[in-house]
């Protein structure tokens, strides 16, 4: 059977989804997806999954996808971050039976993505991306989609999108921010870039960015012409965003906790993170509840914190408006509403007025000098240097770690297989070999067992020393 493509895929499989919950690391798990679907979301993504870990770790697969199968949770798209075509395909093949499409993350701008070389940090490697998407389009039984960020230039963004479409991408989500627009520099997403992409490609396009209320969704679709709109932070602060309502935060918390208990297991860290977002404005007022939430050991403890928060807010509601309306928010703090990041301060101004030219502008402390002098070190590193004067703080002289040949983690310095401990243990066990560097003695133990059986006179039984040790002969240092 031929898999659906482009608009056919959007209409038949995704059921013309317009309201979409974004893939979020550790924040778009099953319970949150089901809560969002109850309140208007028509399509959800899994959290971003690491393709390499998904391939090698069965527990990771079970915890992040296999255990989260629910008939209510469809249509569903699984998102992976990856930078190797073969690894990406292996992960996608393992996931394709549990979702309706596979998405390649080309939009994550965080430092962890830069270190791992994935997400938006692949946006200049067009040959690699073309190979990954083309291979996925050929090998998978479900469509391949992509989520991207824009380039500063509209023309380059359009060319990028058309390259992805030509390679086999069947649906494109465009986050209208560049890779540098993050954190305090997030700023406003460019809908002009999104509109230009939508007009240039012949596949469905979702818009992402600047979505805080249902009115933003409608306005975005009118201005850009996209088929759907994706929300991340707006959804986290108000899971009823796509319904166009703003309920009290404790009601959403109660409903979420109910879903968590109905669909275990759900990590307590995920639950806490969601409630910190939901209660963001209220916790600015009742700061002691922030600590209570952080210390809660189970769902019952979190439920009790929610009960306290509800009681306090209801007491405030009984007061005159002038007594509680001191936050400057559009709604009372106990109502679900977005968090607006403050714009970055201009270092040349102070309290809204031009600072004196003679006043020094505060700047970040420079990186350490190569000589590691105390003047250039942070206070913490100065203390360490006082305890150990010979410690090296020069970045250029720090040892460079060699990567494990299999998983990319740092390898053991003297490992006979040039692997990290985890990979070395699996290989040494399989080949009945030793690795003194990692303290693994599978060959030694086998020989000892052999000698023990021989000395015990077990002549009628096949001695364990007849196991094949030829594969365990390696060029390694003699055992101590």
Short description:
With 480 residues, the protein is an alpha/beta fold. The chain has helices spanning 6-13, 30-38, 51-56, 58-64, 85-95, 111-116, 126-139, 154-167, 191-200, 214-224, 233-237, 249-262, 268-278, 280-285, 287-295, 299-317, 321-324, 379-387, 421-431, 442-455; strands spanning 19-21, 43-45, 49-50, 76-81, 101-106, 144-149, 172-175, 205-208, 228-231, 349-350, 353-354, 434-435, 440-441. The chain starts with 5 loop residues before the first helix and ends in a 25-residue tail after the last helix.
Distinctive features:
20 helices, disordered C terminus, eight-stranded parallel barrel, two-stranded antiparallel ribbon, 13 strands
Report on this structure:
With 480 residues, this protein is of the alpha/beta class. 41% of the residues lie in helices and 10% in strands. The protein has helices at 6-13, 30-38, 51-56, 58-64, 85-95, 111-116, 126-139, 154-167, 191-200, 214-224, 233-237, 249-262, 268-278, 280-285, 287-295, 299-317, 321-324, 379-387, 421-431, 442-455, and strands at 19-21, 43-45, 49-50, 76-81, 101-106, 144-149, 172-175, 205-208, 228-231, 349-350, 353-354, 434-435, 440-441. It has an 8-stranded parallel β-barrel, surrounded by 6 helices. A hairpin with a 2-residue loop joins strand 10 and strand 11 (353-354). Helix 2 packs across helix 12 and helix 7 (126-139) packs parallel to helix 8 (154-167). The protein is globular and about 90 Å long. Residues 354-372 and 466-480 have low confidence and may be disordered.
